[in-house]
Amino acid sequence: MAKSSKRQLQAKWLRIFRKVHRTTGAALFTFFFIISITGLLLGWKKHSGGILLSKSYEGTTTELKHWLPIDSLHTLANLYLLKDVSSELSTKIDRIDIRKDKGMIKFVYTDHFWGLQLDGATGKLLHIERRYSDLIEQVHDGSILDDYLGTSNKQIKVFYTSIMGLALLLFTITGFWLWYGPKRMRRNNTTA
C-alpha cells in the first residue's frame, strides 16, 4: 500500500510539473522566440560580414602620444555625424571606445544607433556605421521599451530579464523532472 501511495504522489508531482511547464511555455512562447533569435544574432554579430557590427578600421598610428586630444576627436565626430548622417541627430555620447592597437577611436551615441570610427592621430573619418547589434541587444534584453517609454531607471529591462531568467530556471527544473521522474518511477516499479 505504501508503494502505491508513493507512486501516486510521484505521478501527481509529474502532472503538476507538466502543467506548469506547458502553461509557462505557452504564456512566454513569444518572448522565448524573440530571445532565441536575438541571442543567435548577437552570437554571430562579429561574423556577419559587417551587417550587424562593422569591422574595426585602422588608423595611422598606435602611439597615443601622436593622437589628437579626446575632446578634439569628440568635436570632429559630432561634426561628421551632423554633416554626413543627419543634422537632426543628437550628439549625446553613450561611450567612447579607444582601440589603441588599431589606431582608431569609436564614438557611439545614446539616442540613436549610429557610430563613427575616427583615426586617433589625424581625426579623419574612417567609417560611419549603423549599429544594428545595439538595436538587437536592446530588443534582446527589453531595454528598447525603456527607451521608447522613457522610464527613468530601466525598470522594464529589470522586470523583463527577471521574469525570463526565472522562467528559464523554472523550465530547467520542471524539464529535468519531466525527464527524470518517469525513469525514477519505472525503476521503483521494477524493484517492487
Pattern of helices and strands:
HHEEEEHHH
What structural category do the secondary elements indicate? alpha+beta
How are strands sequenced across the largest beta sheet? 1-2-3-4
Calculate the mean pLDDT score and round it: 90
User: Regarding quaternary structure, how should these chains be classified?
Assistant: single chain
Concise overview:
With 192 residues, this protein is of the alpha+beta class. It has five helices and four strands; from the N terminus they run H-H-E-E-E-E-H-H-H.
Describe the structure.
- The chain is an alpha+beta fold and 192 residues long.
- The protein has five helices and four strands, in the order ααββββααα.
- The chain has a four-stranded antiparallel sheet, with helices on one face.
- The longest helix has 42 residues, at 2-43.
- The chain is elongated and about 80 Å long.
- The chain starts with a helix and ends with a helix.
- The model has no long low-confidence stretch (mean pLDDT 90).
Note the topology:
Elements lengths: L1 H42 L26 H16 L7 E7 L4 E6 L4 E6 L5 E6 L1 H10 L1 H7 L5 H37 L1
Antiparallel strand pairs: 1-2, 2-3, 3-4
